[in-house]
TrEMBL record:
This is GTP cyclohydrolase 1 type 2 homolog. Keywords: Metal-binding. Signal peptide: none annotated. It holds the Pfam family DUF34_NIF3. It comes from Pseudomonas mangiferae. One of its GO terms (cellular component) is cytoplasm. GO terms for molecular function: metal ion binding. Belongs to the GTP cyclohydrolase I type 2/NIF3 family.
Amino acid sequence: MAIALTTLVEETDRYLNIARIADYCPNGLQVEGRPQVRRIVSGVTASQALLEAAVAAEADAVLVHHGYFWKGENPCVTGMKQRRLKTLLAHDISLLAYHLPLDLHPEVGNNVQLARQLDIEVEGPLEPDNPKTVGLVGALAEPMSARDFARRVAEVLGREPLLVEGAGSVQRIGWCTGGGQGYIDTAIAAGVDLYLTGEASEQTFHSARENDVAFIAAGHHATERYGVQALGDYLAKRFAIEHLFIDCPNPV
């Protein structure tokens, strides 16, 4: 079965409520391909490797979290950008990208989906009074050591995380997928035992250590694999089309 590209884009934009937040890139249809969609390939980033895999899979559209046209980037279509766009246009494949709206969504969002993977019960946003807050806070069913929780993260995500141990056991957790290390002080103020994100900055170590809070950096790519999969599955079920998630390995 096929669905019109315009219908697919309209439903995805509506479902993710893309107008609710200012972002660093355009959300929605970034590159227009053929007018009918039968098969979607999803992935974390619209890299050349993902595009070539989508071509091989005979995809009509590519759905990603990290697309193109970021604020402040060089607008010239040369080099890597030219090759990527040429691949999409030559094969008449559409590119749909959703950044912060996908992080925030209460059902298919990256943060909610990661919580489900790690058995964290979501309580709410890190900053309840700030509607633009991406991170969440929640709790484990039972307290455990930071090392044991890090082992759970490693088993689920398939990579060894960076761990900074805090004082005592871990039950209340704050997290933000991807490059959310800047939220650590907000998480500390929210009273967490451990803060989890994808990346770490030099100062993140000191914030965790000096506040006796555990910290885990589990990988930007690794923590953001689940939202786009859930969104692709939603669209496949909604429109009776095919969806294939392709994970292009990334150690960062």
